[in-house]
Amino acid sequence: MNSGTHPPGKPAVHQDPGPREIASEQLLGPARQIRIFHRGEWYTLRRTANDKLILTK
Predict the structure, then answer these.
(1) Is the dihedral angle over the CA atoms 50, 51, 55, 57 positive or is it negative?
(2) What whole-number distance in Å separates Cα of residue 56 and Cα of residue 41?
(3) What is the pLDDT of residues 2-57, one digit of tens each?
(4) Residues sharing a CB contact under 8 Å with residue 35, sequence separation 6 or more, in sequence order
(5) Signed CA dihedral, 21, 25, 26, 32: sign only
């Protein structure tokens, strides 16, 4: 019985869905910066006075 969506005898090919997109307003909200924890390290994503984004460690 084949419960997958690919033909029997053929390996499944996983398509990369591409990067996830999210608006900076959803991340930051009303704050000018947020902290992001990644692989044991903290990073700061900050919106500048010129409305640019800067990610620092």
Answers:
(1) positive
(2) 11
(3) 455 656 676 677 788 899 999 999 999 999 999 999 999 999 999 999 999 999 99
(4) 42, 43, 44, 45
(5) positive
pTM, to two decimals: 0.66
27 close to 45: Cβ distance less than 8 angstroms: yes
**Would you say 5 and 15 are in contact if contact means Cβ atoms under 8 Å apart?**
no
CA nearest 55: which of 17, 27, 26?
27
Res 6: pLDDT: 55
pLDDT of residue 16: 82
Q: Distance between CA atoms of 32 and 47, rounded to whole angstroms? A: 5
